[in-house]
Amino acid sequence: MRKLTTALLAGLVVTAGASAAMAADKTEISVARFFGACEADYGSVTDVTKANGECGIITALINKFNAESTTTVVKPEIVEWPGYDQLTARIRSGEPPVISVMHEAVISDYSSRGLLEPLDEDFAKAGVDVNDMTDAARQGVTKDGKIYAMPFDTHTWLWHINMNLFKEAGLVDEAGKPILPKNTDELFAQAEQFKEKTGKPYFISTLANETAFYTRTFDTLLYQQNVDFFADPTKVNFSSPEAKGALQLLSDIFTKDLTTKNQDYAASVSSFAAGEGGVFICGTWLIDTYDQESKKDGPLANGYAVTAFPQIYAGSPRVWADGHSWVLLKQDLTDAQRASAVEFMKFLWDNNFEWARTGHLPVRKSIIDSAEFKGLPHRGDIASLAVNGTALPSAVKRQFSIQEIEGEEVGSAMRGDKSVDEALTDAETRINELLANAK
Amino acid sequence: MTDVTLSPGKAVAAVKRPTGASIGPRWTNALFIAPYMVFYLALLVYPLFKGIWMSMLESDMFDDTSKFTGLANYYRLFNDKIFIGTIWNTIFFVLMTVPVFVAIGLLLALALNRSDRTSASLRAIFFGTSVLSVTIVTIIWKMMYMPGNGAIASVMRLFGLEPIAFITTASLALPAIAVTTIWWIIGLPMMLFLAALQQIPGELYEAAALDNASRWRSFWSITLPSIRRTMLVVVIYEIVAQFQLFGQAQLLTQGGPNNASRPIVLFIYEQGFRSWNLGYAAAASEVLFLIMAVAALAQFFASRKRVEG
After folding, report:
1. Has domain B72-308 been given CATH number 1.20.272.10?
2. For chain B, which residues make up each domain, given as ranges?
3. Which residue in A416, B35, B188, B270 is a FRET match for A100, CA 20 to 30 A apart?
C-alpha cells in the first residue's frame, strides 16, 4: 500500500513537472479583449460548438487554441467595452498587450501614429488568403494600402422583434412575418396600435449611460435619406432638413412614450428577453442570444424574429456598420512572440464561422457563401446587411470620439433636454472643433 | 560646557563643543530631508511646472512634435461651452457636498462620541463605506437609482408613486452623484470630528454644568470653538477632494444627460485619453488647480481671521 502511494505520488510529481515544462516551453502572448467575462460558464469549455453568445464563443475559442497549440499560450486580458482609454494609457506607458481587439473605425487613429504593426507579410507567410476577405472587412482593416488587423466580423444595427407581442398587437401578416413600418406615419400608427393592444412600449431602447443607440440609429436614419454628412472628412454637416427630420422623429418617439426611457444596456437587453416591449433596436451580436432564448419557455418562446432596419425613409437601405478586428501592437516583440501572435490570428481566421454564430457577419467570402452559414437561424432575414452596412469614411479621424459627441447631442434632443436645432448645431460645432484640433 | 543662547530672528553660527560635537546650522543636516525633497520635487514640483508648460503646447498623446501656442489652449477653453459647463457643475457639486460633510459628519460624531458597544459598531459601519472602491459604490447606487427595477423605484411603487429617473434626468443627475458621494465617504469627516471631540477636556463641560449651561450653550461655547481647527481641516480637505470628482460621475452618468453632471476632471480625462489633446487637457488641469487653490485659500484665510478675531 505504501509502495503504491509512493508510486502514485511520484507519478503525479512527474506529470505535473512535465506539464509545467511543456507550458514553460510555450510562448505566452497577452490578448486584450472586451466581449465580457464568463469564466464561470465557459472557463474550461474547449468545444466551441457548445458555446453561445459573444463572451461564450470567444472564451471557448481561446481555450481551444490554448489546448491545441504546441507553441503558444494566450493570456486573455478582459477590458470593459470599448477599452480604448485603457489601451491608450498602456501604449503611452510602454506596456501594451501583444494583441488587442479593435473596432475598424478606430484603427486609423492608431496606425497613422505608427502604433500598429502592418500584417500583410505575416498573413502571406501564415497562409491567410486576404482575397477571401469580404470587401467591407478588407476596407475596414486596410489603411494607406497596408493591412493592419485581422478582421473578425462586420456588425450592424437592426431590429430584434418579439413576435409573440407583435401577434397580440395584430402586427403579423398571413405569412407569419412582422408588419413593419414603411414611413414615419406608419411607424407612429403601428407603435400606437402596439401600445394600445399590449399595454407595452413598441420600442425597447438603451437610452441611459451609453451613446451608441443614439449615434447608430441617427446615422442609419441619415443614410436612409442619402445624407452624406461627412462629404468632407474634416467637417461634419448636420445642418440639413433631413438631419432635423431624423432627430425630430427620435424626439417624437420619446415624447409619445413609444419607447422605454431609462434603461442602460444591461437593462434593455434583459428587458427585451423579458417581453417588456416589441422591438429592440440593437446589433447583430444579440441574434444568437435571443435565438437561444426563444427555444426556452418565456416571453420570447418560439417568438423571436430579426430584420434589417426597416426603410422608414424612401432612399437608401444603408445602415450603420463597423467591424471588430485584432491588431498587433508595435513594441519590442521577439520572433517567437510575433510568430505566436500571427498563429493566434490565423486560428481566429480559420474559426471565423464559429464567431459568426453570434449573429455577426463573417469576414470571409467563403463562409458567407457557405451552406453552413446560410443554415444558421435568421441569416436569410439579414443577408442584405452584408451589402448595406456602411461605416464612416476612413479618412475621418477620431471616429469613436465623434460618435460619443454625436450620441450625447442626439440624446439631449431626444430626451428633451435641448431643442433639435440646438443639439444639431452643438453636435456640429463640437465635432468640427475636435477635428480641427486632431492630428 | 558651552552655553548657547538662541535668539529669534538671528542667524546662528555653528558652535563647536569641547567634545568635538557641534550644534547649529550645518548643510549636512539637509540630508535628513533630502529623501523627502527628492520625491517632493520629482513627483510634485516638476509635474506642476511640466503641466503649466504643456498647457501652452499643442500636444498630441502620441505625437512628439509639440508646438508652442502660448495661451491658445486657455482661450479655446473659455470659449468651450462644455468646459464652462463643467466648471459650474463642479462648483455646484462642491457646494452641495462640503457643507453636508461638515454638518452630517459633526452630527454623527456628536451622536457616536460614547464608549459603549453600539456606538463603536455604528462608528465602524459609518466608516466602513469609505473603504469601498468607487466601482463598488457606483454599482450599489446604480442598483438604487435605476427607475426600472432599482431599489428606490421599488419603494416608490410600493407607495403608488411613479419612479424618478435620478441619473437620466438633467436636473437630478448631479444631486444623485452628490448623495452617492456623501454616503461613500461621510466616515472620514466623522472620524476627524470624533478625534477632535475626544481632545476636549471633560472639566470644561463639568464647569459648564455647574453653571447650569444648556446643552446648546455648551455646544456653542465649548465644543465648536474647541474643534474649529479640525473643522477647517475638514472643510479644506473636502473642498480639495470634491473638486476632483471623477469616478462617480464617469461610472454613474458618464457626465450626462446633456453634460449636466460632467465635472472638470472628467473633461480633462476625455480630452487627454479619448481625444489625445494633452495640451488642452493640461490647460483645463491648470484652471482646476487655480480654482481649487483659490477656494481652499479663501476658506483658510476666512477661518483664520475668525479664529484670530
Report:
1. no
2. 72-308
3. B270
